[in-house]
Structure formats: structure tokens, C-alpha cells
Amino acid sequence: MSILKLTHLNVHFPTQDGVVKAVNTVDLEMANGERLGLIGETGCGKTVLGMSIIRLLQLATKVEGKIVYKGKDLLKLSEEEMRKIRGKEIAMILQNPTTSLNPVLKVGDQIAEAIQLHQGLDKRAAKEKAIEMLESVKISSPEKRANEYPHQFSGGMKERAMIAMGLACNPSLIIADEPTKGLDVTIKMQIVKLMKEVTKRKSMLFITHDLGAAAEICDNIAVMYAGELVEYAKTEDIFKNPLHPYTRGFLNSLPSMGLKPIRGMSPSLIDLPTGCRFHPRCDHASAKCKTEHPEMVEIENGNYVRCFLYT
Amino acid sequence: MSLISIMFSRENLCNLVVIKGTKQIHTFFLFKIHMNIITKVVSYLIIIFIILSLNFFLPRMMPAGPLSGLTSSDKTVLEQYTNYMTNLMHGDFGWSTSKNAPVWDVLMRSLKWTLLLVGTSTVIYVIVGILSGAVSAWKKGKKTDVGLLVLLISMASFPPFFLGMLFIIFLGWKLDLFPRFGAQTLFIDYSTPFGVVLDILHHLALPAATLTLTSIGVIYLLTRNSMLNVLGEDYILTARAKGLSEWYIVRRHALKNAMLPIITLVALIVGLVITGTIFVETVFAYPGVGMLVADAISAHDYPLLQGAFLFIALAILAVNFIADMIYVHLDPRVKQE
Lengths: 311, 337
What we know:
The complex is a heterodimer. Chain A is built from 12 helices and 12 strands.
């Protein structure tokens, strides 16, 4: 049974320079208990996709399509109904823990307030639960830490606190936006291990540009380029046999794979290329790629790719 | 007058310069973190010393010179200065030539009225200013916001004495709803203390309203701007992601952060309002320190003027000190040291 199903999702922002087409006709389905990695470069629209699910984008944003969570179309809910889902049913772990924690409130209280709101506990019980949550993300002496402020936490600990905050109300779906961003390598490894452990048997959309982290945690991986999905496959398949030229380029650009960057720059989301969005940077581009837009096609047992090389 | 208050709000002016970015504010206050209590007390003592010295020299630079009015004119300036300082240490503020009484006694009689006037209006304009600013930022671009903006900014553009005169003409004279001068009705025996209080409040209403309405706009605008900045921060998004209601987020997550850059500015504004009472008290013939200053200037009563200046300067310093304390209480990053 699917927990989340996106159908023809479009997210466009009107700006002074033109309409930013951040997400374009994305179709995506997540099974209950699945951990899905959403991978792409900075500015490809993956954060916007995550935020649109929980409806945290500015009011002026145009979101079209369907976001069906457990049979309910989230886009049709009122703001009031949506608030009851945020934090309780669907939790989002935002990127940049340094700026995402309120500097003037105690970390424990910031975790407790969601528990108090959604689980109807009183202040004291909520605070105790918050301390438990800090303990579950392996923060030492949690009673003391709960009464400290974010500036007294290290970067890795802030990330742990963010994770504890997201998991506090035992949500069915977690959207984690780049939880390993800006951490040094050893801390990153610890956070990845922790994420893997705490999200066992939970559904998670793991947004990242860190392929290693995604490989460690996720069952399936969706690759996003210029606001659309270009490949969807099981994690092991995507590493063994990447299909889309962009996915291959992405893998080759890793330090462990020879550090060969993809030529050119990722396109502006205001002025998207015609035809295949990747053709100006693709080594296999033909005349057809410049004019026609490829569709997602199934290659084998649930692996999809958007490329004329496979049609 | 306002020159003095601004000079002694020097610290606030520094803050005013860096108000543009909250990040800069925080780096500015890093410097504050290292100031422990002792250096803070010492710096306040130095400031008080400078105030006293300026308070001595400024009246002596005025045209028509005070020397003609003072009996000690045969002494040199330095002698007068040491005399003045020693006397102050002994609690001797000098002799008011126009009231023919000790300056201290004259000031004490007026001080309670000014405290009542400034205190009442400050409590109202600070609280209402901050709340309306917060609501305005929360409802940005909507009718509530635009309405508050137009109303409060146009109020703030009235000079206090002009608004005061309008009040006297329309509410005091034409409609005869409020007394037109003084702090209480003279030569009337009230049977109950309640009657006295009512009479005092009746007299207080117009001057306090004048001071409040003309001061509210600045606090409102500062809060609104600071709040708008804070509402764009990442931690507000985190709060929304938890499913908290918008008003709860404004109240608990945004307001405290938005207050940080405002607090020291509020102290500056309170300083300006204290000097502003000179006009309001004069217009309403309200017998406070402000009117005393006006009287002393026209009567060339320099000892009284010096005494009044000293009181006003110390009051502003006290407000600054309170602001410092509140800041430390609100921002855990400063409290830690």
C-alpha cells in the first residue's frame, strides 16, 4: 500500500524575473515503510518538492497536481486540517540546523512543544518525552542538554536535535532535507548511521545530494534534474547500472569515482531548455533530444528512466 | 536638551547604526558578552561623571551667561567646578534663584508628576507599540496591517505640542470634557481619596494621551520591521513544520527574537520622550520637571536648570541600564558569560 503518491505535481513560483518552474510533472509513489532517496544537484527543485508535500511554501506559490497521503489529497485540505498533519503525521527535518533552531528557546522546549500540541500531554510530561527523544538520538546527558540553548550545541548535536524534533510525535512519514549537509566526514557518518537506525520500518523521503548517504539508507532512489525526475530505480541497481546520462555523470563526479564533473552548468529553472532538459550537457545528445521531450519509461522490474537512448 | 539625551545614549546610537541586520547586531553584542558586571558598573560611573561635568559647563556656554545670576562670580571656573562637584557629593544641588528655595526641594515637588506622566504613557506606548507591530507584521499587506500603518505613522508625524494644543482646543475647551491645565484641581476638598485619584487621572488623560500617541509610531514601526525580518528566518519554518498555529509562532518564536534589536532602541526612544515632556508639560501647564526646565530657562535660573538636567540625564541612564538588564535576560547567548 502506498503511503504517498504524487501525481503530475507542478510547483511554480512567480518572481520578478519570471516564473520559476521548480517542480515539473513529477509522478512518484512511496510504499509504506519505504525509504526513498531524492537526489539531485543544488537548485534542481528537490527541497521545493519536499516542502510542497507538507505545504510550507509561500502563499503565492502555484502547486498543481495531486499529493495523496494515505488516501487524502493534501492539496484539498484546509490550512487548519493541514496543521494537524504537520509534525504529527508528516514531519519535516529542515536543512541547516544552525539557523533552523530558535536561538532564544531551550532545545528541550522546542522539541516538547510539538509533543504537547499533538499528543495532548501536559508541559512536564512533554518535556520528559523530549528528554527521551534526545536520548534516542544519542545525545549524552539529555536532562542537562534539554535545558540548554542551541548555541551551546555543536553542529552534529544540533542535527541530532533536529532529528529528535522530527521524530518526536512518531510520524508516519518523514521528509528529511539534507540532514548531512555541512557536517564533517566523521560526524556525517554518525548521522547517517543514526538516520538509518531511527527510521527503521518508517517511511522517509530522504532529500540529499550526498549519494553515499542515500546508498546507505535508502531502498529506492529517484534522480531529479531541472525540476523533473529523470531516473527511478532500486538503490543497488542505480549504483551498479546507472541508465540516464545525468545519473552516470553524477556518479562519475564523485571523488571515489574519479572526480569527473559534468560539463556545463545546470539550467535556470526560469528558462528551461527545450526537448530533453539535459541535452545541452549530454554527450549522447542527438537532434531528437533538442526538440522532443522524452517520457519516463519502465526498463525492467520497476526501474524507470527518461531518455531516448532506451526507447 | 535632546542633545544631552542623545549624547548619553551613545551606546544606543551605535546600535541604531547596526540595526540593519540582526546578524550584525549579534556580533555587536559579542563585545557586550565580555563586559562583566564590574566593567559595566565602572562604565556607568564614568558616564555619570561626564554627565555631571557637561551639566556644569553647558549652561555656562549659553548666551546671556549664568555668571550674572550667580553670587559666586568672583571665583574662577575651575573653583566653581570643584565646588559644584563637592556640593553634589553632599547632596547639595544649590539654591533656585527664581523659586527662592533649595533646588532639591523644588525638583522633588515636580518629580512625582513627571514620573506619573512619563511612566503611564511609556507603559502604554511600549506595550501597544510592540503588540500592534507584531500583529501588523503577522498580517502583512492585509487590511489590519495597512490600517495600523497609516494610523500610527500619521499619529507619529504630529509634533507633541501641536497635538496637545488640538486636544486642549477641542476636547478641553470646545467639548469641555477634560481640564485644560494643571495636575489636579486646586482648592477643592474631596471627601474620599478616590475622588482625588479620579481628579488626578482626569488631569493626566490629555497630556498622557499626547505623549503616548506621538511616541507609539516609532516603537510600532521598529517592531514591525524587526518582526518581518524574524518571520523570514529558518526557525520560523521549523515551527510551522511542527504544526504550530500562526499566532503561537508569532508570540512564542518570533516576538522574543524580534525584541532583541528593539530593546536598546526603546531605551533611546524613552530618553527622547522624557525630553519631549518639556513641550507637553508646558502646553498643558503640567507642574512636572519639564515645565520646571521651561520656567528656569526663561527666569535664567541656572542652578535649577542644572538640577533638572541632571535628573533627566540620570533618568535616561537608568532606562538604559534597565534595557541592558532586560537584554541579558532575553538573549541566552549573552547570559551565559
